[in-house]
Write a structure and sequence with these properties.
Elements lengths: L9 H6 L9 E4 L6 E5 L5 E9 L2 E10 L4 H16 L4 H17 L4 H11 L7 H19 L9 H12 L3 H20 L22 H4 L13 H9 L4 H12 L3 H5 L6 E2 L4 E4 L10 E4 L2 H8 L21 H17 L18 H13 L4 H7 L7 H6 L5 H15 L17
Antiparallel strand pairs: 1-2, 2-3, 3-4, 5-6, 6-7
InterPro entries: CB (IPR044068), DNA_brk_join_enz (IPR011010), Integrase-like_cat_sf (IPR013762), Integrase_catalytic (IPR002104), Integrase_DNA-bd_sf (IPR038488), Integrase_DNA_bind_dom (IPR025166), Integrase_recombinase_N (IPR010998), Phage_int_M (IPR053876)
GO molecular function: DNA binding
Pfam family, one: Phage_integrase
């Protein structure tokens, strides 16, 4: 029979010391066969269980003393022996549990953190910083409120639907891009080991079954626009409102520019002497510098704006940086709701009967050119910074007709101010005092 070690007590264990020579020494403590205390030359003490596992002798660490007491060491040793009797290798079992814990921790990454990581991984895929900002701003505006604090592992199809459904019909193009970006973030998280399972933002065989196809509910650029007859009253209401959001919408209306171009405008893009707003190619959809002649009304509005120290934005957000797209949309929504509260119909697109949105102001401008003026349509297309689809026309038209457009934009400002179809053109030297 194997020799049974004397059962030591807590005080005996506390008094055990290394002899001072050689490497680690072991002392059987009894109570559980194979349980020993290892005494290290450094003075440290650890628990080991010597046992046969699968026909091989193993030394299994149980922990250090005094963090693991004698009583706890004996209890753990008995549990390990029970596992061995059940045919379980305790060392491999421990490794598997540790791996599972690590995997679980990796899958605890929040969607907000995943966005940062995914963007960092995709930096080389972006042509310029504008595209990266578009990605981040879209996700920040629409996805973060619902998904930001959720772990990527727990996000389901229903969670993605909560993000998409409120804007799927009203902002279909934005919603479609948003879906693709959420899918890309979750795809990165899956490949990086932070989540498992199908991608809940996938379109084919997934969201396609729950949402109408984008092409069936919206055409690109088909944003609700102001009716021409409503524009002067709407503009008058807008000008009574305070705040950078209202001024950004006013500037967007006066210049027929895209919301993103207005929100990103910086003071160094404004040439007051020439009454020009020069938008660099990096911030333009067609990736080509765009010069916008500023009407005296637009120049006066800009001159009245305060400049915040250390902030280059013409229309800064309260917490710094540029305004969000939602800020401009909220301004227009409030104007519409105020008109409805006063007993009117509000400011609805005459075609689809939906409340007008910032991007729709460009359509209103285009309708004004076509229906109320004799300015050529190609001049309006240049003002809107649209790509020229006709290759021959594009080859011959190398300039941007900026001086001819100056009169058109002054007339547009006059129309918004209620001065009639072409408006009153004010000499440009009156734009600055």
């Amino acid at each position: 029979m194997p020799k049974i070690a004397a059962e030591l007590g807590p005080l005996d264990v506390k008094r055990l010391k290394h002899s001072g020579t050689g490497a680690g020494e072991t002392v059987a403590v009894g109570g559980v066969s194979g349980l020993v205390m290892q005494l290290l030359p450094s003075g440290g003490k650890t628990w080991l269980l010597r046992a046969m596992v699968g026909g091989k002798r193993r030394e299994i660490g149980i922990g250090g003393y005094p963090d693991v007491t004698l009583a706890q060491a004996r209890e753990r040793a008995r549990d390990i022996k029970d596992l061995i009797r059940q045919g379980v290798d305790p060392v491999e079992d421990r490794k598997a549990k540790r791996s599972a814990l690590i995997a679980a921790r990796r899958r605890s990454m929040t969607f907000a953190d995943a966005v940062d990581k995914a963007l960092a991984a995709k930096l080389d895929a972006f042509k310029n910083e504008k595209h990266q900002d578009q990605w981040r701003n879209t996700l920040q505006t629409y996805a973060m409120p619902e998904l930001g604090k959720m772990t990527v592992q727990e996000i389901t199809v229903q969670d993605v639907l909560r993000v998409l459904q409120p804007i799927w019909a009203s902002k279909t193009e934005t919603a479609s891009r948003l879906r693709g970006r959420v899918e890309a973030v979750l795809s990165w998280a899956t490949v990086a080991g932070h989540r498992m399972g199908d991608n809940p933002a996938r379109w084919a065989g997934n969201l396609k079954e729950l949402l109408p196809a984008p092409g069936k509910i919206a055409v690109e650029g088909n944003h609700p626009a102001l009716a021409l007859g409503d524009a002067p009253a709407w503009f008058a209401d807008l000008r009574t409102r305070d705040g950078f959001g209202a001024r950004a919408v006013e500037f967007a209306a006066l210049t027929a520019a895209r919301s993103g171009e207005v929100r990103g405008a910086t003071w160094n893009e404004i040439d007051f002497d020439a009454a020009l707003w020069i938008i660099p190619a990096a911030r333009i959809k067609m990736a080509r510098e765009h010069r916008v002649p500023l009407s005296p009304t637009a120049v006066a509005m800009l001159e009245a704006l305060p400049k915040l120290e250390g902030n280059p934005q013409v229309f800064p957000a309260v917490r710094g940086g540029q305004l969000s797209d939602m800020t401009l949309s909220a301004t227009m929504r409030r104007i519409h709701e105020t008109a409805v509260a006063k007993g009117g119909a509000g400011y609805l697109d005459p075609r689809n009967k939906r409340p007008a949105v910032p991007h729709g102001l460009r359509s209103t401008f285009r309708d004004w050119v076509a229906e109320r003026t004799t300015y050529p349509g190609e001049m309006a297309e240049v003002a809107l910074a649209h790509r020229i689809s006709n290759a021959v026309e594009a080859a011959y038209r190398r300039g941007d007709m900026v001086e001819k457009r100056r009169a058109m934009m002054a007339a547009w400002a006059g129309f918004l101010l209620g001065a009639g179809a072409k408006g009153k053109v004010v000499p440009i030297n009156q734009g600055r005092g």
